[in-house]
Protein backbone atom coordinates (compact mmCIF):
# COMPACT_ATOMS: atom_id res chain seq x y z
CA UNK A 1 0.00 0.00 0.00
CA UNK A 2 1.16 3.52 -0.83
CA UNK A 3 1.16 4.73 2.77
CA UNK A 4 3.50 1.97 3.96
CA UNK A 5 6.96 3.33 3.02
CA UNK A 6 8.74 1.20 5.62
CA UNK A 7 8.11 -1.81 3.40
CA UNK A 8 10.02 -0.29 0.47
CA UNK A 9 12.81 0.95 2.73
CA UNK A 10 13.28 -2.49 4.30
CA UNK A 11 13.23 -4.27 0.95
CA UNK A 12 15.85 -1.97 -0.56
CA UNK A 13 17.97 -2.23 2.58
CA UNK A 14 17.86 -6.02 2.34
CA UNK A 15 18.87 -5.94 -1.31
CA UNK A 16 21.74 -3.53 -0.65
CA UNK A 17 22.95 -5.58 2.32
CA UNK A 18 22.78 -8.81 0.33
CA UNK A 19 24.79 -7.41 -2.57
CA UNK A 20 27.34 -5.75 -0.29
CA UNK A 21 27.77 -8.94 1.73
CA UNK A 22 28.33 -10.98 -1.42
CA UNK A 23 30.88 -8.44 -2.66
CA UNK A 24 32.70 -8.69 0.67
CA UNK A 25 32.91 -12.46 0.32
CA UNK A 26 30.17 -13.59 2.69
CA UNK A 27 29.59 -17.26 1.77
CA UNK A 28 25.90 -17.25 2.71
CA UNK A 29 25.11 -14.25 0.52
CA UNK A 30 27.20 -15.61 -2.34
CA UNK A 31 25.46 -18.98 -2.18
CA UNK A 32 22.03 -17.36 -2.12
CA UNK A 33 22.78 -15.33 -5.23
CA UNK A 34 24.39 -18.21 -7.10
CA UNK A 35 21.79 -20.88 -6.28
CA UNK A 36 18.55 -18.89 -6.27
CA UNK A 37 16.77 -16.61 -8.71
CA UNK A 38 15.55 -13.56 -6.79
CA UNK A 39 12.96 -11.13 -8.15
CA UNK A 40 12.35 -7.76 -6.48
CA UNK A 41 9.31 -5.59 -7.17
CA UNK A 42 10.11 -2.49 -5.10
CA UNK A 43 6.72 -0.77 -5.39
CA UNK A 44 3.39 -2.13 -6.53
CA UNK A 45 1.69 1.26 -6.20
CA UNK A 46 3.88 4.00 -7.73
CA UNK A 47 0.97 6.39 -8.33
CA UNK A 48 -0.20 6.27 -4.73
CA UNK A 49 3.39 6.63 -3.56
CA UNK A 50 3.89 9.69 -5.78
CA UNK A 51 0.66 11.28 -4.50
CA UNK A 52 1.79 10.92 -0.90
CA UNK A 53 5.28 12.16 -1.69
CA UNK A 54 3.95 15.21 -3.54
CA UNK A 55 1.33 16.14 -0.95
CA UNK A 56 3.37 15.20 2.12
CA UNK A 57 7.06 15.56 1.15
CA UNK A 58 8.20 15.21 4.76
CA UNK A 59 6.27 11.98 5.27
CA UNK A 60 2.93 11.14 6.77
CA UNK A 61 0.90 10.81 3.57
CA UNK A 62 -2.03 8.46 4.11
CA UNK A 63 -3.21 7.59 0.61
CA UNK A 64 -3.55 3.81 0.52
CA UNK A 65 -4.96 3.02 -2.92
CA UNK A 66 -3.81 3.52 -6.50
CA UNK A 67 -4.55 6.53 -8.72
CA UNK A 68 -7.78 5.41 -10.37
CA UNK A 69 -10.64 7.90 -10.09
CA UNK A 70 -13.31 5.95 -8.20
CA UNK A 71 -14.97 8.37 -5.82
CA UNK A 72 -17.80 10.78 -6.59
CA UNK A 73 -16.36 13.52 -4.38
CA UNK A 74 -14.74 16.22 -6.46
CA UNK A 75 -12.63 18.25 -4.05
CA UNK A 76 -8.89 17.92 -4.56
CA UNK A 77 -8.58 17.21 -0.87
CA UNK A 78 -10.73 14.13 -1.36
CA UNK A 79 -8.41 12.50 -3.88
CA UNK A 80 -7.02 10.44 -1.04
CA UNK A 81 -10.26 8.45 -1.19
CA UNK A 82 -9.87 7.65 -4.89
CA UNK A 83 -8.42 4.40 -6.13
CA UNK A 84 -8.45 0.63 -5.79
CA UNK A 85 -6.96 -1.24 -2.85
CA UNK A 86 -4.58 -3.38 -4.85
CA UNK A 87 -4.37 -6.01 -2.14
CA UNK A 88 -8.08 -6.69 -2.64
CA UNK A 89 -7.83 -6.93 -6.44
CA UNK A 90 -6.18 -10.33 -6.94
CA UNK A 91 -8.05 -13.16 -8.60
CA UNK A 92 -8.69 -15.60 -5.78
CA UNK A 93 -11.90 -15.31 -3.77
CA UNK A 94 -12.24 -11.77 -5.13
CA UNK A 95 -15.34 -10.21 -3.58
CA UNK A 96 -15.87 -13.36 -1.51
CA UNK A 97 -18.40 -11.52 0.64
CA UNK A 98 -20.13 -8.28 -0.15
CA UNK A 99 -19.56 -6.50 3.15
CA UNK A 100 -16.45 -7.94 4.81
CA UNK A 101 -12.84 -8.31 3.73
CA UNK A 102 -13.19 -5.82 0.86
CA UNK A 103 -15.67 -3.26 -0.41
CA UNK A 104 -17.57 -2.62 -3.62
CA UNK A 105 -17.81 1.12 -2.91
CA UNK A 106 -15.27 3.27 -4.71
CA UNK A 107 -14.76 5.73 -1.84
CA UNK A 108 -13.92 3.03 0.70
CA UNK A 109 -10.31 2.31 1.65
CA UNK A 110 -10.71 -1.38 0.84
CA UNK A 111 -12.40 -0.89 -2.54
CA UNK A 112 -11.62 -4.05 -4.51
CA UNK A 113 -12.07 -2.65 -8.03
CA UNK A 114 -14.55 -3.43 -10.78
CA UNK A 115 -13.24 -6.97 -11.29
CA UNK A 116 -10.38 -9.23 -10.29
CA UNK A 117 -7.17 -7.98 -11.89
CA UNK A 118 -8.92 -4.85 -13.14
CA UNK A 119 -5.81 -2.82 -12.30
CA UNK A 120 -2.54 -2.68 -14.29
CA UNK A 121 -0.52 -3.01 -11.09
CA UNK A 122 -1.99 -6.37 -10.09
CA UNK A 123 -1.86 -7.61 -13.68
CA UNK A 124 1.84 -6.76 -13.69
CA UNK A 125 2.39 -8.99 -10.66
CA UNK A 126 0.41 -11.77 -12.30
CA UNK A 127 2.46 -11.44 -15.49
CA UNK A 128 5.75 -11.64 -13.58
CA UNK A 129 4.53 -14.82 -11.89
CA UNK A 130 3.54 -16.24 -15.27
CA UNK A 131 6.89 -15.36 -16.85
CA UNK A 132 9.07 -16.89 -14.12
CA UNK A 133 9.01 -20.20 -12.30
CA UNK A 134 8.30 -18.55 -8.96
CA UNK A 135 8.17 -20.96 -6.03
CA UNK A 136 7.91 -18.60 -3.06
CA UNK A 137 6.85 -14.99 -2.58
CA UNK A 138 7.17 -12.58 0.33
CA UNK A 139 4.95 -9.49 0.30
CA UNK A 140 6.12 -6.51 2.34
CA UNK A 141 3.70 -4.26 4.23
CA UNK A 142 3.88 -1.89 7.18
CA UNK A 143 3.08 -1.87 10.01
CA UNK A 144 2.29 -4.52 12.63
CA UNK A 145 5.42 -6.53 13.55
CA UNK A 146 3.80 -9.67 12.19
CA UNK A 147 4.13 -12.42 9.61
CA UNK A 148 0.99 -13.78 7.94
CA UNK A 149 0.21 -16.69 5.65
CA UNK A 150 -2.95 -18.02 3.94
CA UNK A 151 -5.81 -18.02 4.14
CA UNK A 152 -7.09 -14.48 4.69
CA UNK A 153 -10.44 -14.57 2.89
CA UNK A 154 -12.30 -16.63 5.51
CA UNK A 155 -11.48 -17.37 9.13
CA UNK A 156 -12.72 -20.92 8.64
CA UNK A 157 -10.87 -21.68 5.40
CA UNK A 158 -8.74 -24.74 6.17
CA UNK A 159 -5.16 -25.43 5.17
CA UNK A 160 -4.11 -29.06 4.69
CA UNK A 161 -2.34 -30.16 7.85
CA UNK A 162 0.99 -30.74 6.10
CA UNK A 163 0.86 -27.26 4.58
CA UNK A 164 -0.10 -25.67 7.88
CA UNK A 165 2.83 -27.39 9.61
CA UNK A 166 5.19 -26.18 6.88
CA UNK A 167 4.02 -22.58 7.29
CA UNK A 168 4.19 -22.79 11.08
CA UNK A 169 7.72 -24.21 11.06
CA UNK A 170 8.97 -21.59 8.62
CA UNK A 171 7.22 -18.77 10.49
CA UNK A 172 8.80 -19.78 13.78
CA UNK A 173 12.24 -19.73 12.17
CA UNK A 174 11.65 -16.38 10.45
CA UNK A 175 10.41 -14.66 13.62
CA UNK A 176 12.81 -16.24 16.10
CA UNK A 177 15.07 -13.16 16.20
CA UNK A 178 12.60 -10.29 15.86
CA UNK A 179 9.75 -11.63 17.98
CA UNK A 180 7.07 -10.93 15.37
CA UNK A 181 3.70 -12.55 15.83
CA UNK A 182 2.83 -15.07 13.15
CA UNK A 183 -0.07 -17.13 11.89
CA UNK A 184 -2.84 -17.12 9.34
CA UNK A 185 -3.91 -13.59 8.51
CA UNK A 186 -6.77 -13.51 10.96
CA UNK A 187 -4.45 -14.81 13.70
CA UNK A 188 -1.53 -12.45 13.08
CA UNK A 189 -3.12 -9.19 11.89
CA UNK A 190 -6.60 -9.77 13.31
CA UNK A 191 -8.81 -9.31 10.26
CA UNK A 192 -9.70 -11.07 7.04
CA UNK A 193 -9.36 -9.90 3.44
CA UNK A 194 -10.45 -11.27 0.08
CA UNK A 195 -8.80 -10.79 -3.29
CA UNK A 196 -5.53 -10.74 -1.34
CA UNK A 197 -2.10 -11.47 -2.82
CA UNK A 198 -1.04 -14.28 -0.46
CA UNK A 199 -4.28 -16.15 -0.97
CA UNK A 200 -3.97 -15.76 -4.73
CA UNK A 201 -0.37 -17.00 -4.83
CA UNK A 202 -1.09 -20.04 -2.71
CA UNK A 203 -4.67 -20.69 -3.80
CA UNK A 204 -4.09 -20.59 -7.56
CA UNK A 205 -0.42 -21.50 -7.94
CA UNK A 206 0.51 -23.40 -4.81
CA UNK A 207 3.27 -20.90 -4.00
CA UNK A 208 4.76 -20.55 -0.56
CA UNK A 209 3.23 -17.13 -0.01
CA UNK A 210 3.63 -14.90 3.05
CA UNK A 211 3.27 -11.25 4.10
CA UNK A 212 5.49 -9.26 6.44
CA UNK A 213 4.08 -6.30 8.35
CA UNK A 214 7.27 -4.47 9.27
CA UNK A 215 7.61 -2.01 12.11
CA UNK A 216 5.23 -0.64 14.70
CA UNK A 217 2.93 2.38 14.83
CA UNK A 218 5.79 4.38 16.34
CA UNK A 219 7.99 3.54 13.37
List the keywords.
four-stranded mixed β-sheet, 35% helix, Aminopeptidase, signal, 7 helices, alpha/beta, globular, zinc, zinc ion binding, hydrolase, 219 residues
Quick gist of this model?
The chain has seven helices and four strands. The protein is of the alpha/beta class and 219 residues long.
Tell me what you see in this structure.
This protein is α/β, with parallel strands linked by helices and 219 residues long. It has a single domain (5-213), classed as 3-Layer(aba) Sandwich (Aminopeptidase), CATH 3.40.630. 35% of the residues lie in helices and 9% in strands. The protein has seven helices and four strands, in the order ααααββαβααβ. It has helices spanning 5-23, 27-35, 46-55, 120-131, 161-174, 185-188, 197-205, and strands at residues 136-141, 146-149, 181-184, 208-213. A four-stranded mixed sheet has the order 1-4-2-3, sandwiched between helices. Strand 2 (146-149), helix 5 and strand 3 (181-184) form a beta-alpha-beta unit. Helix 1 (5-23) crosses helix 2 (27-35). The longest helix has 19 residues, at 5-23. The protein starts with a helix and ends in a 6-residue tail after the last strand.
Amino acid sequence: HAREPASLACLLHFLRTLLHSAEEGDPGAAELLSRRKLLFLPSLNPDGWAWNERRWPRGGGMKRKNGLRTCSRRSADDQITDGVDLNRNFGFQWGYTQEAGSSGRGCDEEYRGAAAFSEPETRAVRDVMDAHAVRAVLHWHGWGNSLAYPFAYDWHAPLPSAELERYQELSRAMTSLNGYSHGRAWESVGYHANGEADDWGYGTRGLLSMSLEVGSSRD
